[in-house]
Amino acid sequence: MKLSGSLAAMAFVAAAVASVGTVAQAPATSKQSGPAPLYNTAKAKLLAGKQVFSFTQSTMDPAGYCEKAKHYDLTWFEMQHSTLEFKDIEAMIAACPHIAATPMIRLPDAQEWHIQHATDIGALGLIIPTVDDVDRAREAAKWARYPPVARRSSGQGQAASIWGINGTNYRQTINDNMLVVIMIETPTGVANAFDIASVPGIDVVITGNNDLSSFSGYLQTDDRYHELVKKVHDDTTRAGKIFGQAAATYATGPYSYDARFFQNGPSNDGYVPPAARGRGSSNVNAPPKGEEP
Prior knowledge:
Blueprint: H1 5-20, E1 23-24, H2 41-47, E2 54-57, H3 62-68, E3 74-78, H4 86-95, E4 102-106, H5 112-120, E5 125-128, H6 134-144, E6 156-157, H7 159-163, H8 170-177, E7 179-184, H9 187-191, H10 193-197, E8 204-207, H11 209-216, H12 223-238, E9 242-245, H13 274-278
Parallel strand pairs: 2-3, 3-4, 4-5, 5-7, 7-8, 8-9
Antiparallel strand pairs: 1-6
Helix pairs in contact: 1-4, 3-4, 5-6
């Protein structure tokens, strides 16, 4: 019997989730000898001084996600500007665990329950938008990692069964593998950039290029706009953190400021996602639809 498209998709997701299962997070009992290699490959690449690029996943599409994720450094699961739910992302991560692209989620805020859900379903990175002050940055850092460095709670979820394999202790290794990315998108955030970047537990600070232009009133061709971006770069590197820009169009050129973390951008092997092909454009650095300048 031939299944309809929706029934086939439901069967695909159900099988994937069942194959991963859920486990209760066991308490920490022992320390591993020496630092283990990072399974967050995007973070490892950043720490090696390299740039990382992503694709934006805004819809529930396990098969499409698994195909695109073969070709990029990370997946930018979009929850700020989409109707994706945690159960959708959970199913997509389960459909192809250990795919090349590190799963990261842009959340709408830094609330504890949002961060707890994101980490429990297996995300290895969080992207927090519109951070204007130290308080919001501290909230992001507070819930992203386990004690003793932060206050993430132990609970059920598929994360440990995905990443705690082949002798890896998830509880003992996830703090090192977690990647917390803060977005500065307003002049207020720019003014507080050094204090924001200095918060322990923040790994990367990026400019939200289009919103920074919108909030500041400066076009991205305006020198005053580029002065704002440069200040964020200077403050971030002075704080010892990694700088990035949401717009992959700034991956090179005089306004790159050595940015290393981007939303979208080129794949690692020349692959172009179907959406970009459908636009009739080869510009893989273009922002997602609706977020154009």
